[in-house]
Structure formats: structure tokens, C-alpha cells
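Researcher: Structure for this, please.
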Amino acid sequence: MLCLLFLLGNSSLAQEAMPIQSLEQMTQMAAEHLKSEASRSYPEFQAQIDIRPPDPRLRLYRCSHLEFSLAPGTHLYGMGSLGVRCEAPQPWALYLGYQIELRGPVLVAARALAAREAVKPRDVELREIDLSADPGNYLRNPQQAVGLLSKQPILAGQALTPNMLTKPLAIRAGQKVRIMVQTPTYTVSQECTAISNAVAGDLVRCKANNGRILQGVAMDDGTLQIQF
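Model: Predicted structure, C-alpha cell format:
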């Protein structure tokens, strides 16, 4: 009995003497890691990192080298999970929840735009805002918007994304167009009637004067081209 009490006492003392990983230090290092990764992925944006701290009752063996990794499917914006792993002197692993808010310059509407309104250079401007989605979803150059049509009403100051704009029609159904056949050695063209509306880059069918149905790619100048 005395031996058992002695062993239990030593075990308790050993547990109390175990070097404990500072949860505050681990959380700070995780935030610094995420900030560094976000800055590398999105150098034009500022990242605000918020780490959900672990349960303060958690006891982990102090790690000689912490390793961080993103959980599958998470991103360096919005909410996600960061893996924290220790290999030595005693292995352990856990996940820390986080939220990353990015702020930076994106293209916004300088004034309210009606649906189907053509965007002019004076209608857009770069402005720093807090992003609520993937930074790649935002337009960042006026050339990406000028000349396009708004698909829907757009508020002044609203950030612009590709799905809010569309190309103007290059060809309308029933319009007389020229379809051109281009080869490395010659070019042949003839008149035909477009069967459907199209924007530049669309594949369009048209009806020739002899009744034959032809197909070509709509160009910005309103012609159709067939390339070989």
C-alpha cells in the first residue's frame, strides 16, 4: 500500500511538473501564421485575423516546434480552421477556428446604374472596402467594366463583380451580317441573316441568301468569322 501511494504521488507530481504549452502563445503564433499566408496570397489587401481561442482548461505538452496547416477546403478569407500539430517531445494535434477579414481597393460604382446601362469611365472608381467574399470575385481594373452593360440596378458605392455585368450585343436576331471565312491564304465573305442574338465570342448561326445555314463566331464589329 505504501508503495502504491508512493507511485501515485510521484505520478501526480510528474503531471504537475509537465511543461505546459502556452495557449496564448500558440494562438498568437497561429494568428501571425495566417496573417503571413494571407499577405502572401493577397498582397494588395490588409488582413484582420480573429482566432477562436481553445478551451483554457486544455493542457498540452509544451512543443519545441509548432506546425500549422489549413484544413481541407478552407481559404484565407472568411471563416475556416487552422491545424496545429506538434511532433516532439510529445505529439499532439488540434484545430483552431478563425475568421479573416480582408480590406483593400476594388472597383465600385461611382453612381447608381440602372439595369442594361452601359458603364462609362466616370461610372466606376477604385475604393478600399471590407471584402465579404473571395477577393478574386471582385473587379479591380476599370477596363474590366467600362463598355459592359449592367445586368441589374447597381447602387452607388456597390462593389462590382463579374456576374453583375455583361457584354453588349454584337449581333441581333434578324440582323444582316457578313460571315467571313479566313484561311492563311485567302478570305471569303458573304451576307447572311443572324438567327439569334449574340455577344462577342458567341457561336452564332445565320441563314445565307441561298437558304444555307452557316455558323461563325460573333466579333465586336458585328461580323461572323469562320477560321481554319
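Researcher: Any notable elements?
Model: The radius of gyration is 31 Å. The domain at 169-227 is CATH 2.30.30.760 (SH3 type barrels.).
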